[in-house]
Design brief:
Layout lengths: L5 E6 L2 E6 L15 E7 L4 E4 L8 H6 L6 E4 L5 H4 L7 E5 L14 H6 L10 E5 L4 E3 L4 E6 L8 E5 L4 E5 L5 E3 L6 H12 L5 E4 L10 H10 L7 E2 L8 E6 L9 E6 L3 H5 L1
Parallel strand pairs: 4-5, 6-7, 11-13, 12-16
Antiparallel strand pairs: 1-2, 2-3, 3-4, 8-9, 9-10, 10-11, 14-15, 15-16
Helix pairs in contact: 4-5
């Protein structure tokens, strides 16, 4: 396991930061286990989407890239996206993702053991953003949007400067449906997002842009859902998952997959 960061510029004053993480992911097609945070730098402020596992000094790394005051956002609060929150006094989430300003500590025992830098009493608090909020970084506007399905309060960001949609885990090469919501609800959220004006999609678990038309590939996959064509995706002894996919290898450009807990068959069909 590497505890080092690396970054690359994906647009003017726009950085992808690969955080230290763990491979492989679950199932036959393990995918990309590393988490990518995104840093958007305006004239007055910078925005950091997601804080990784909390197993290395993300704050110090970001400060090498910008000296602007930092607005820190969790696309959602799963431990690979919020583990570094303790380094920042205030972290913003979308209303409905958590119900308290109190810090969230990981429920997964395995992550507690692997993330030695995550404290039992993290020193931060949540503040809440409303859907439709426009964040002004100084000459750079970013829209706050909801795309429920992976979690109930998954937040995606639309950056007007680049035209990029930063999707967290809400749009990925493989989306895990962990909110207990039916596929129809996720499909409606995707269709709503597809109607927006954006140029490309950057998710949290793949190092390349997904492309403007990727949402339509996921929509087509949902429309082809057949319980008979799912496969098991064991997840390191945790809750059993199943998935269905288009394509044969995670690295294929058009590959997309949806996974969900194996005891949620009925919810998926609603």
């Amino acid at each position: 396991m590497s505890l080092t960061f690396r970054h690359w510029e994906i647009g003017p004053d726009t950085y992808a930061i690969q955080c230290p993480g763990y491979l492989p992911g679950p199932g036959r097609l393990p995918g990309w286990g590393y988490v990518i945070s995104y840093l958007l730098v305006g004239q007055e402020k910078a925005l950091l989407q997601d804080t990784g596992y909390g197993n290395a000094d993300l704050k110090g790394y970001v400060e090498q890239l910008t000296d602007k005051p930092l607005l820190v956002i969790n696309s959602h609060v799963h431990p690979d996206h919020s583990g570094g929150n303790k380094q920042f006094g205030e972290v913003f989430v979308l209303e409905g993702e958590v119900d308290s300003p109190d810090p969230v500590y990981f429920p997964q025992e395995g992550e507690k053991a692997r993330c030695a830098l995550v404290d039992a009493c993290p020193d931060y608090h949540f503040s809440f953003l409303k859907e439709g909020t426009v964040l002004d970084l100084g000459g750079r506007l970013v829209d706050v949007l909801r795309l429920e399905g992976h979690t109930r309060g998954s937040m995606v960001l639309l950056d007007h400067a680049t035209g990029f949609l930063f999707s967290g885990d809400a749009i990925l090469k493989r989306v895990l449906m962990l909110a207990g919501m039916p596929l129809s609800a996720y499909r409606a959220a995707l269709a709503r997002t597809d109607a927006l004006d954006f140029r490309d999609i950057y998710g949290s678990h793949w190092y390349e842009p997904l492309g403007r038309d990727y949402i339509r590939k996921v929509l087509a996959l949902i429309d082809s859902y057949d319980p008979k064509n799912t496969e098991a995706a064991p997840w390191q002894g945790e809750r059993d998952m199943v998935m269905f996919c288009h394509g044969n290898a995670f690295e294929e450009k058009d590959f997309c997959a949806i996974g969900f807990p194996s005891d949620c068959w009925e919810q998926m069909k609603q």
